[in-house]
Amino acid sequence: MTRFGLILAGGQARRMGGADKALAQLKGRHLIEHVAERLTPQVDQVLISGRADYGSEMKVLTDGPVGPAGPAAGLFAAAQYLADHPASIVIAVPVDAPFLPLDLVERLCAGSLPAVAHAGGRLQPAFSAWTQDELVAQLARHPAGQGLALGQLARDANARTVKFDDPGAFFNINSADDLAAAEARSG
């Protein structure tokens, strides 16, 4: 099965003043560069659900007029793009998580799919793995144009939970303070 990494980079970043999180700087590099660097060795191809390729030359998937709104729209776009690859796997990660585990894909894909990460005592639904056909089936159950939380999508699909010991690996940057904390963490 082909594994496609999907960087979810289409958010509105309201808590960061509407700035494009993918372009936020961490240690002199864009967040999307940090995420791609950690995800790329784990998958066969990386896709971006967002506004641009950010100079990466990766395939960009944009939200279409049908399907759910919000982060699930990126998963919907990936499912549509991979319609000719029904046996493929989509591994979603958010653009604002520069410390994602280097064994994320291996662990999420080690059992039944869909699977979602769990760390720090809570579900991490933006870190998930799906078969293309399961994504299509699950997303078809939800009204087009309405918001769909990734946690709800995972619960509706009875996603397998994969526990990770390091909650810091799932640290996501939602504010200037978070960005400063990430700078401090990365030494």
What is the strand and helix layout of this fold?
Blueprint: E1 3-9, E2 25-26, E3 29-30, H1 31-39, E4 45-50, E5 59-61, H2 72-81, E6 89-94, H3 104-108, E7 115-119, E8 122-131, H4 132-140, H5 150-156, E9 160-163, H6 176-185
Parallel strand pairs: 1-4, 1-6, 4-5, 7-9
Antiparallel strand pairs: 2-3, 6-8, 7-8
Helix pairs in contact: 2-4
Describe this structure in words.
By secondary structure, this protein is α/β, with parallel strands linked by helices. It has a single domain, classed as Spore Coat Polysaccharide Biosynthesis Protein SpsA, Chain A (Alpha-Beta Complex). 27% of the residues lie in helices and 24% in strands. Strands 5-4-1-6-8-7-9 form a seven-stranded mixed β-sheet, with helices on both faces. Strands 2-3 form a two-stranded antiparallel ribbon. Strand 2 and strand 3 form a beta hairpin. It is globular, with a radius of gyration of 15 Å.
